[in-house]
Every structure is written in C-alpha cells, then in structure tokens.
Amino acid sequence: PLWTAMAALLAVAAWWAAVGSSRPSGDGRARLAEAVLLAMGLASVVVVLARPSWVEASGRRVPGRTAVLVDASSSLGVAEGGVLRSTEATARLAAVTGDRVEVFHFGGDLRTGPPPRYDLGQTDVAGALERLAERYVGERLDAVVLISDGIDRGPLRAEHRAGRPLVPPELPGPLTVVGVGTPGALRDLAVVRADSGGFAYAHTPMALTVEVRGEGHAGRRVPVELTRDGAVVATVEVTLDADGRAEAVFNVTPDKAGRVAWLVRVPDDADDAVPANNSLPVVVSVVRDRLRVLQVAGTPTWDVKFLRRFLKGDPSVDLVSFFILRTPDDDLSAYDDRELSLIPFPYEQLFDGEINTFDVVVFQNFNFAPYFDRNAPKLLTNLRDFVIRGGHGFIMVGGDRSFSMGGYADSPLSEILPVALPPSPGEADVAPFRPVLSEAGLRHPITRLVPDEAETAAWWARLHPVDGSNVVGEAMPGTTVLLSHPARTAPSGAPMPVLAAREVGAGRSVALTIDASWRWSVSEAAAGAGNQAYLRLWKNALRWAVGDAATSRLAVEVPQENYAPDEEVPLTVRARLADMRPAANVDVSLEVVVEGTSTSLSGTTDATGTWTTPWKAERRGTHTVRAQASDGSQVLTASTMFTV
Could you tell me which of 558, 547, 566, 571 has the C-alpha nearest to residue 616? Predict the structure, then answer.
C-alpha cells in the first residue's frame, strides 16, 4: 500500500507537469518545477515495474559455548601435600561444566572428553590450542579455558626459553588459564630404567640392572624389590649418591622360554611426589639355549639306551637321566651304602623341588609305586601341574611298566595323558605290527619327517614293524592321533592310538604306546638309509612338547617386548588346523589386559590363517594379550605380553 500510494502521487505529479508543459511557458522557476515533477513521475514508473518488497528481520540471543582443555600428561600425577595435581584438575573441571561446555583433554594431541587417566607422555599447549581453533573455525565461543600445571614440552617452551613473548594462536574466544600445582622442589623416589640386555636364555642366570633416582633423598638407603606375578623374587638395598642416583643388579634365572614380565619397585613414601613412577614393568624375551630334559626309566632296555644316547648326543639338550634305580626297599635291607652299587633315587628333590627347572619330563617304562614310597599323590600332582599350569611337556613311552600296567589309570597323570587308560592293567599286545600314519600325522610337526606329504608317508610305510604295544583306550579331548594300530580298536571302534599328542592346559603331552622305536633306527641303518626317521621323530616330539612356536596351532605375536606411550602396536594371530594347514576364515578373539582393565577385540583370519589388528599403547604397564579361536571341535588359546 505504501508503494502504491507513492506511485499514485507521483503519477498525478507527472500528469500535472505534462499538462503544465503544454501551456505557454512561464518563468524559469515554473519550468524547473515541471521538469522535476516529470522526472519524479518517470522514476515512479521504474520503481513500480521493479516490484519492490519490504523485509523486516527478527532474531533471538543464544548463549555462547565454552571449550575446556584439560592437561592429561603424566606430570599431573605429581602429589603435593598428599593430593595429586590430577585431583585438583578434576575439581577445577567440575567447576566449569554445564550444558554449554565442551570438554577436551590433551597431551601431544587434542582428544574429546575429560581425561580417563593422567598418563599421556607429552604436553603441547600450543598444538592443543591450534587444533581447538581449527575445530571451531567460523564460530565464536564465550570462553576457552585451559587447565594445566604449565609444564609444556612443545613450541611454547622453546619460545619461553628464548626469551620471546608467548603469543597464543588465534582463538575463537577469550582464553582463561587455570593453573594447578605449586612451583618448587619435590621429593620423589623413582625407578628410572631396567636393562635386561635385550633377551635371556632359559635356565641360565641373567643380570637385570635397575637405575633408581631419588629427588631430595641423597644418601638414603633404599630397598629395591623385583616381583613376578605379584610375588617378591629378590630384594636389593642400594645407597643413593649425592645426585640421588643408584644402581641395583638382580641375578635371576628364567624357568622357561617365552616372554617373562617382572616388576621393579621402590617404597611408596607419604610425601612422594609421583607415586606412579615408584614401579617399572619390564618384559624380557627368553629363548632356549639348551632344552632341559628329565628322563626317568624303570629298567634298562634297548629303547631306553637308544633314546638316552640320542638325547646325550644332541648339543641342544641338557639331559638329566635316571635308570637302574634303587628303591626304598633296598634301603631297608641289611646292606649299607658302601655295599650297594646304586644311588638312592632323589624323587622328592626332583618332583617336589626342581621339577620346574625342566622343560620336558620323559617317563620311559617307569612305574612310580616302588620308588615313590611316600607322597606319591602329591608328587604326581606336581607333575600334572608342571604341564597344565607351568606350560611344560610330558612324554610317556610304553613298556610293561607304563600306562595302566604302571598303575597310572587312577593317578593325577591320567588327567594329562592323550589317551584314556583302562582301569585294569591287563596284558600287553605282543603281536608285531606296523603303525598306520593318520591323515593328521602327514602334516603334524611330530610325524612330518620331510616337507613333502607323499614322501613322509613313504618313510613311515617302509619302517620296520614293532614288537607289540600297551593297550590303551580312546583319545582324550584335544588329542591328535598320529599313529594308530592296524588291528586293535578302542572301545568306540576307532583304531587304537599308538602315538598321540595333546594340548592340555598351558602345556602338552605325548603318548607312545610301544617300547621298540629303537628298531626304526637299526632297521634303517641296516638298509643303508641311515637313522634319520628315528632322530627326526624324537627331535620333533621334544620341540612340540615344549611348545616351540613353529609347532603351535594358534599363536599371537607382538614384534617388540617394550613400547613407548602412544605407540601403535600390531597384534597378529596365526591359526592352523589339526593337520597344520592354515585355518582360513576362522573367527578369532583377542583380550588385552593391563592393570586389571580388559579390552576385547575380534576378527577373522585370511587365506593364510592370519589376522592383524593395531593397538594404541595408551596405558603404562604390562599388557597381557590372550588369543582364542575354535576349529569346530576344539578351542585353541595362545598368549604373549609386552610392556609400555
């Protein structure tokens, strides 16, 4: 309506000017007025044709947002007056939280949310502010709040030390810095470093060198403890020098190959500024220099002689062998020690004290009852736990004093053997036979004598028949039957196992029901073919029994033993079927445990039986990695460890 009224008014003015211009001209002022009115009329026509509109804007005031950055570096773990700086930082954060507040934490980079822990390895204030500015580009914040103890390790530190003014980056809002902590000297006792030399040998003493530092503790005597699985292994007292430093050396002997985790710690004082550095985890890779084998035989036989000669001749084996043993009944006779040619069998010392110093125990035609005159259940339980819990190997070889004939049917060892034992000793089957190699035996690390399967089958087919076998029952769960009897069957109707291997608990067991494997050595030599089948069989059996990585169906691998915080750790799982072929398309689950916190991961193996996933090493401490997979009939497990 406004524009219509204006257009009408101007149209009238233009009409009047046109009428006036048609009359005789008057004075100059009249003609000027007419021209102006004519121009206004023409302008009104242009405006009307343009169809203008009237726009009115309205809005509302929105409260601004606040961004809070919390320093999550490990220096926030410093305690002052018994209160951690991180506790103060958390209280400061609680004072500024609200609906319009967004919280971030930072160390070397910016992360969303409040800090789950104060243990990041570095502090870059400038970098965190720059990333915040990039996040809110084009926006305006009410405030940017920085909570920190001011210990910076980024560009700001270099600017400050160079004496240049500190200029924060362009920010989306005004910056408020909230400081925590009190400047000044601190009292702090810390384990700085633990050096193992990179690796160690199983059953061989190694030196673990530990460096201790004590700020404000010069001249103090400090006990340094070495622990493993929560138990104290050794304690060494050191005296801090004028600089507050000292070195402790622990001499330890790893009991088996693999990765071993220790924890070094010093006392937690009430005024200690950084309790978190009073302990330091260290993981050491332990390799086998020599395989430590305990061979116990109940009687001297050709089979015992051949196996003992093989073990003694292998430079990679440290053999402790007992045979032609003196029983407790001999000690009760009228003879004294000078008149007896045999030494007493130190069975209690071996099976109640030194059992865990061995990698493999071999019972060869050995019946325990005449020798274990007391504590037999306890000693055999120790041997069972040596396998199930200790992760070691056990091999039972046949004979008239083995398996059920040796009284093992109801003993603790029946729980770990690969075959079920008939409750009655019965009689041995003395008919000669040639064992039959199973399909799994073609590829299994024990019976795969050469890489080619057809050639392996040919080797076994030409070996000499054996002189009979102990009678055993079904294969136990988790057992792989490698050789079977061509005629005898188990109660289920399946061929009776002759050579069987089982993964039980953390360890492994092997059962060979014959006592004539020595014939394979002699018969090959007589045929001019050497004795490689015999030697390879037993070497393979020992390697498999101790859990050599090359013989494992499931393995989890981490390239290094020790990582720095925030490093990416590749976790790799390799799975194989019972016949040792790659297990493709198998679901794998991983559990990573550190300081009581567990994280689960899952994936599927590729065509090579491999699955790899990255892991961010964010938390300090020893990480235990456990893998689990199933082949449909058996659940496989494996584990390793590393430290951050």
Answer: 566
pLDDT in tens, 274-330: 888 899 998 888 877 788 999 999 888 999 999 999 999 888 888 999 887 767 666
CB atoms within 10 A of CB 580: 17
- What are the pLDDT digits (tens) for 252-287? 888 777 888 899 999 988 888 888 889 999 888 887
Strands ordered across the beta sheet of 610-616: 554-557, 568-575, 610-616
* Across 481-506, average pLDDT: 94
In the block, tokens 């004979």 appear at 399
Per-residue tokens: 326: 């003196």
Q: Give the C-alpha separation, 431 to 428, whole Å.
A: 9
Beta bridge partners of 557: 572
Q: Tell me the residue type at 299.
A: T
- The phi, psi pair for 178, rounded to 5°, reads -110, 115
CA distance 456 to 461: 9
pTM for the structure as a whole: 0.60
Measure the CA–CA gap between 396 and 408, rounded to whole angstroms.
Answer: 11
DSSP line for 604-640: E--TTSEEEEEEE--S-SEEEEEEEEE-SS-EEEEEE
337-374 b/e (C-beta count within 10 Å ≥ 16 → b): eeeeeeeebebeebbeeebebbbbbbbbbbbbebbbee
pLDDT per residue as tens digits for the range 378-437: 999 999 999 999 889 999 999 999 999 999 999 999 999 999 999 988 889 999 999 999
Q: How far apart are CA 395 and CA 363, in angstroms?
A: 6
The one-letter amino acid at 63: P
- In DSSP terms, 437 is beta-bridged to 483
Token pair 């000044």 is at which residue? 184
The answer on pLDDT for 469 being more than 70 is: yes
Q: What is the pLDDT at residue 358?
A: 92
- Supply the DSSP symbol for 406: G
d(CA 636, CA 274): 42
CB-based contact 169:126 (threshold 8 Å): yes
Mean pLDDT of the chain: 87
Please compute, for residue 575, the number of CA atoms within 13 A of its CA located in the half-sphere on the CB side: 29
Helix then strand count (H, E) for the chain reads: 12, 30
Please count the residues of the chain: 644
When mean pLDDT is compared across 29-43, 101-115, 120-134, 449-463, the lowest value belongs to 29-43
For tokens 């059992």, the residue is 355
239: nearest Cα among 247, 251, 250: 247
Q: Which of 535, 541, 489, 538 is nearest to 510 (CA)?
A: 541
Convert the pLDDT of each residue in 427-465 to its tens digit: 899 999 999 999 989 888 899 988 888 888 988 988 889
